[in-house]
Amino acid sequence: MLISNAFAQAAPAAAQDPMSSITGVLPLIFMFVVLWFLMIRPQMKRAKEHKALLEGLQKNDEVLTQGGIVGKVVSISDAYVTVEVAANTQIIVQKQAVGAVLPKGTIKSI
Questions:
Q1: Model pTM?
Q2: Do 83 and 65 form a contact (C-beta atoms < 8 A)?
Q3: If you ran DSSP here, which 8-state letter would residue 2 be given?
């Protein structure tokens, strides 16, 4: 009666712009680059340094395990290290558990 019927009209078909598809993917690429430089790259660097530390491990080195145990390396095998933590007290830990090699004389100063 007083209100006339409204009919929807189809919008004109938008032409596919090659730049619109690139700008849609650009934030995703940017987030991956940020993730790479802030998380993945530093972790790979730390893993490489830890591997070099384990390969350079020698008998009589003073080490700190990831569990916080300080001791002197008595023997080394492929996967395990025997660490002397006190006189006549030795423990066997996995090689991966060695967190740091301490300077000589650290155990005596503790």
A1: 0.70
A2: yes
A3: -
At 60, the amino acid letter reads: N
**84: buried, middle or exposed (CB in 10 Å: 19+, 13-18, 0-12)?**
middle
Alpha helices, H only, 10-98 = 18-35, 41-55
The token pair at 5 is: 């019927």
> Is the distance from CB of 60 to CB of 96 less than 8 angstroms?
no
pLDDT digits (tens, 9 = 90+) for 39-98: 999 999 999 999 999 999 999 999 999 999 999 999 999 999 999 999 999 999 999 999
Give me the torsion for CA of 22, 28, 30, 31, rounded to 10°. Answer: 180
Residue 31, token pair as written in the block: 């987030």
